[in-house]
Amino acid sequence: MRNYEIMYIIRPSLSEEDRKALIESLNALFDADESEIKKTDEWGVRDLAYEIDKESKGYYVVMDVAATEAVRAEFDRVIGLREDVLRYLIVKEDE
Q: Which of 8, 64, 87, 92 could bond to 38 as cystine, CB 3.0-4.6 Å?
């Protein structure tokens, strides 16, 4: 298992209920295969450095997770398919 820091930006136009459901569904991917979420920080709506898909703001979420390679790859696949997520970044932390 490896430690990762994951940051993703959700469209600000998404309703609060839909945003919470999206975050919960992405977090649920780490409930399997010995993976765990160490910490989740919701930074809220912030300005973007540049426009993405005609959006100038985004809702930021940062997570620290310990996950297997298979779970990380599945998260990468699923989040890449979501149109509600403007951008995401997965960084492997040094051990």
A: 64
Right CATH number for 2-92 from 3.40.50.11690, 3.30.70.60, 3.40.228.10, 2.40.30.20? 3.30.70.60
Q: Which residues contact 1 (CB under 8 A, 6 or more apart)?
A: 34, 35, 66, 67, 68
Q: Would you say the pTM of this structure is higher than 0.85? A: yes
pLDDT score of 95: 65
Contact yes or no for 33/68 (Cβ under 8 A)? yes
Question: Domain segments of the chain: what residues?
Answer: 2-92
